[in-house]
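Risk mitigation, structural track. In case the binding assays with nicotinamide-adenine-dinucleotide fail to produce interpretable data, a predicted complex structure has been prepared as a fallback.
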Amino acid sequence: MRALVTGGAGFIGSHLIDRLVDRGNEVVVLDNLSSGKSSFLSHHDEKVKLVNVDITSLDEIIGHFEGIDFVYHLAANPDIRLGTKITDTDLKQGTIATYNVLESMRIHNVKNIAFASSSVVYGEGAPMPTPENYGPCLPISLYGASKLAGEGLISSWCGTFGHKAWIFRFANIIGARGTHGVIFDFIHKLKNTPDNLEVLGNGRQEKSYMEVGDCVEAILHCIEKFDESINLVNLGSVDTASVTNIAEVVIEETGFTDAKISYTGGDRGWAGDIPRAMLAIDKLRASGFEPTYTSVESIRHTAKILIEEIGL
Ligand code: NAD
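Fallback model:
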């Protein structure tokens, strides 16, 4: 099997590639290394070919889709906050890039795609836990809009050109090789100011967290188990944690136990942030997959690993 992974040098992509190689796949990676690192793939041999290319250019990527059996489309701007300052990033890196991937697939007759979407497509005020069939989906961030647009494009390629898709709406994914997100930020903040940890918002934002190994195993499990033309699955864990809970765990694990937590205030971290989110994962569990970690367990596990990786 020849797989193509966009964003394969990134946090989640590199873990996915480890599993794909274990299963005997050859992998072509399209990544411009904007937030990914070639070192995340350096333990692989020639079975993994990294192509440093920007997927916002259709001309530059199209040839790489020849002879591919399955596309995992993970490349995107990972920073939801960026949309508050630069308003066309998600349009280009999310929506247009997804069009380029789909058009390259159509031209080279590659039929199967898995897509990294997000819980933020559900918008604010959705019931918690949120099932896949909740709607209408009205995202409140530009990032969320680009994910929903990507889902729409993929669904239209399935309906019009006979493609087959697995769309995954991720909770917050955390774990080894993390290069962004709340735990990563807190470790860096404490490293700079060990006596104070500034938390964006009031700390009561409550979300669910999934360990990255669970996430990539769940992706591969769902591709085997679900066989519709479009397969939409929430990927998350069974519980939630508040930002204050995370701050406390990171303070404990770093050993900076004199640090005081200060809050910038307000009910959310930034404009477009959704303060409370939890995905219903009944569909995933009914298919026979149980996440190994709860949110709370994955937060502590990740804090320990990232402290090692970042160094204090
Ligand atoms: P990441 O930043 O580590 O991975 C993204 C990868 O895409 C990086 O390697 C980056 O270099 C690459 N990339 C970005 N723009 C590109 C471009 N124009 N051309 C080529 N390569 C490009 O982030 P991640 O956390 O691993 O996220 C992977 C996917 O999962 C993303 O689509 C993200 O939106 C989605 N997602 C992540 C989370 C999470 O909590 N981490 C939650 C929901 C959805």
